[in-house]
Protein: Nitrogen assimilation transcriptional regulator
Organism: Serratia odorifera
Amino acid sequence: MAVLYGAKTPPGLTATLLAKEELYLVATRAVPSPGNSVDLMDVSRLNLFLPREGDVVRNQVDEAMAVRRLAANVIGEIESPSTLSAAIAGGLGATILPESAARAMIGPAKAWMARIISPALAVPMTLCVSSQQPLSAPALAVKELLLSIVAERSQEKRALVLVQ
């Protein structure tokens, strides 16, 4: 069982869409905060640490930039969360992450996050299980727990939208 970002299901797995997570710019005070949201054109002017080409987040960013005749200023490719957090905390640049990953990083990196708009970017988050073997009873329990956590988060998010 795996929770993955992206719409492509690896061979031998069955995927269930859990959510679509919007992409956020994450940086420290070394980069002036734009507030709650930031335009993709402004993102293109920043020094960025992104995952390698082929990664679902990188693909979204590259495609959105290309459509607008922009180019990401990628100064490094980092996939290790701890290394990425250290680079951001050190003020070396900014990064683009799905919302849950961005929220997890802003505390340790003493960073801020801003939703990318114009256009809004999002990546699917899927729960993948083997299509060839049934899940064991403990694995089924974990799957149900994961599904309930995601459902709870979705309800909380809807409530926040209604209140705003």
Summary: The longest strand covers residues 13-27. Confidence is low (pLDDT under 50) at residues 159-164. Helices lie at 40-43, 56-67, 81-89, 99-106, 137-163. The longest helix spans residues 137-163.
